[in-house]
Amino acid sequence: PPPPATAQLPYLLGFAGWAVASAVLVVVRSRMMLSLGLLAGEVLHSELLTRVLAAPLSFFDVTPRGRVLSRFSREMLTVDVSLPSALQTYLSTLASVGSTALVVLAASPLFGAFLLPLAFAYSAVQAFYSASSRELKRVEAATRSPLLSHVAASLDGLATIRAFDARRRFGSECERTLDANLRASLASALVNCWLGLRLELLGATISAAAAALAFARNSASASASSAIAAGLRGAGGVGTAALGVTLALQVTQTLNWSVRQATELESHLISVERLQPYTSLEPEPGWVPPNAAAATSAPPLRRVAPTLTGAGGGGEGG
Known about the structure:
Layout: H1 9-53, H2 57-62, H3 65-107, H4 111-156, H5 158-163, H6 167-218, H7 227-233, H8 238-279, H9 290-297
Helix pairs in contact: 1-3, 1-8, 3-4, 3-8, 4-6, 4-8, 6-8
């Protein structure tokens, strides 16, 4: 006879408790990661702004305006938002992949023989993709600065451009810089497609290996009841094997996302690398920080002895 409904209540309550705890931990993790990212971005932006405002005039003579605007706009946006989000997603997908691998190994210990070659294949694909994506990100960032410089210069000299009827020439120049930036973006998208195809093939291999091992485990003859055979078959019954196969089918997208996020995290760190030279700019000779100027301009504090004055102390009685 089927078990009573009350017998399933502890399992349902335990599942609900795990779900609530998971939701709370996800909120805490997201808030903590984003708060730390914003704090790091605030410190970096303050240092960057202080150094750029105190930089000598020769720096602005040799540095294009678009390059400075790119540092304060796109690069800071990456540090404030994209970098913490990529780190959070990468850690989450990495934990999901690890838990899935443990469940599949518990269901079919022979899966460990396939796990090491697959891990090596994933590492090789990620290393090749990371090198290409990192350089393409640098090219995309380098082609963005001329575009911003051209737009800023065109807006400043708009009256002159109209007076000399140079709209066609400036429009062609804008299209040329925009095409150069879009070519780098298109190459990055093509590299992502290349990565997706390879990761889908590796994920299909994982799913096929897990399904084949689960089938071999559950179709083994009853005569193979030795300890070695039982150890190779793994723990649990058909339900554990089915759970392992289901997670192996789902891990394809998780692995794909994990590799992408690892590469995105490495690419986003390029923004920090591009901001570092601006945080170490030498100030204008003779420049004094505002706090130091305020401290030096304040009058010195001296101890003043108290004096007693009386209303009739200096007059005569009478």
